[in-house]
Amino acid sequence: MATYAIGDVQGCLSPLMQLLAKINYHPQHDRLWFTGDLINRGNESLATLEFIKSLPENTVCVLGNHDLTLLAAYYDIIQPKPGDTYAEILKAPNAKELIEWLSKKPLLFHDETQGYILCHAGVYPLWDLNRAKACAREVEDCLQNNLIALLAHMYGNEPSYWYEDLTGWDRIRFIINAFTRMRFCDTNGGLDFSLKESSMSPLSSLLPWFSLPQRIPIQEKILFGHWAALQGQCPVNNIYALDSGCVWGNALTAFCLESKEKISVECTL
């Protein structure tokens, strides 16, 4: 029995099936975790979402920014942009069922037994684990009880700094941005969304979230996606980048929690 965490699939079902065959995935014995961004950009978004939804109940998916965008589009909060590939989901006969299933997914998953955290973009560096879990629950509760309002207020880059006394939609927006959009922070921990490149920032004032000197250490191992430019590499011990850029024609990667082995398949789109 093994647990495999898989990086951003983004509607690339064919590479996902190749990867599951390569790891010899058996649904009765193995378990799959997904780092979010299940859909969009790839050309098989509907089939991908339907397949992952059909997996055993012990499958774990956390929400990514593209997943939240799909929810917002379904409820007419936004309109799809050029290059988005989730229109087929919105038109599908089972769209409501798929959207309701997706909206119940968490921002953070913590397996205390194995000592792993799964999230899309990472854990905000000035949060300890208890704070991160509490913040994730705030948004998850809002997703269940005030979904439309959350989707209407979640867009925007401000506030960029975390304060314990943040309230209302500013607080919710910061938490969502931290879990689903974060890459770089300034030296004071402010979220910056101007760069998407690798961890070697050309601006000395910006650092990858995992390299911030004052980052609060978390004992658990962190699995995250979102940052394809890292090509699945992270220089910090016990933090594992899993988005290896499948949708950009690179690779789709699975990480075995038990052996810490990475297994990839090449993607040609």
From TrEMBL:
Tagged with keyword Hydrolase: yes
GO molecular function: bis(5'-nucleosyl)-tetraphosphatase (symmetrical) activity
Record's keyword terms, sorted: Hydrolase
UniProt-listed InterPro entries: ApaH, Calcineurin-like_PHP, Metallo-depent_PP-like
Domain Calcineurin-like phosphoesterase, residue spans: 4-159
Catalytic activity, as annotated: P(1),P(4)-bis(5'-adenosyl) tetraphosphate + H2O = 2 ADP + 2 H(+)
This protein's record includes keyword Hydrolase: yes
Domain of life: Bacteria
EC number of this enzyme: 3.6.1.41
Class of enzymatic activity (EC top level): hydrolase
CDD domains in alphabetical order: MPP_ApaH
Protein function: Hydrolyzes diadenosine 5',5'''-P1,P4-tetraphosphate to yield ADP.
Family: Belongs to the Ap4A hydrolase family.
Protein name listed in UniProt: bis(5'-nucleosyl)-tetraphosphatase (symmetrical)
The organism of origin for this protein: Candidatus Berkiella cookevillensis
Protein's gene: apaH
